[in-house]
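Hey, I was hoping to borrow your eyes for a little while. No rush at all, and the record is pasted right below:
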Amino acid sequence: MLKRTIISLAFALTSPFTFANCNDFTDVDVRKLRSQETVNLCQFKGKPLLLVNTASNCGFTGQFKDLEALHQKYKDKGLVVVGFPSDDFFQEENDEADTAKVCFINYGVTFTMMATSPVRGDDANPIFKHLGEQVGSPKWNFYKYLVSADRKEIQRFGSRTKPLSDELTNAIEKQIR
C-alpha cells in the first residue's frame, strides 16, 4: 500500500498534467532553447515572473549579464526570469545553437530560455500575445514584463530600462513581499 502511494505521488509530481489547472495565460507548453523539452509556465504558479524578449545581436544584448544577476539575486525569493529569443526585429541568430551560445556561453545565463519565437503580431507566441493584449507588445528587444504571482498585474518596462535599475528592482521587490 505504501509503495503504491509513493508511486502515485511521484507520478503526480512529475506528470505534465500536474500544473494544468492554473487557469491563466501561463498554461501553455513552450519549448526550451536548444532542447526538445517543454516547460509549462504553470509550474511557476504563485511566483512573480519577469518575461523578457531577447536577441543575440542587439545593442541591448549585454543586458543578459544583468538579467542573470537579477535571477541570482531574487530566485530564492520566488522571482522567475524567463527569456524569449525573437527575431521580430531581425537581430537574432538564424541557428538556435548560435542563440544558445550567446546566452549560455557568452553571458552565462542560467535562467530559463525558451526557443526562438515571435513576440508581436498575429504570430506571437501565446505568452506574448497575452502580454501584448494587456499592456502592449514589445517595440524592440529586451522589453521586460513583470507579472504578479496571481497573474492579475503586469508591468511593462522598455529596452532602455536596465535590469538592475531602481525602477525595475523596486517593482520586483514589491512583488516578492
Remarks:
- The helical segments are 2-14, 63-74, 96-106, 126-135, 166-176.
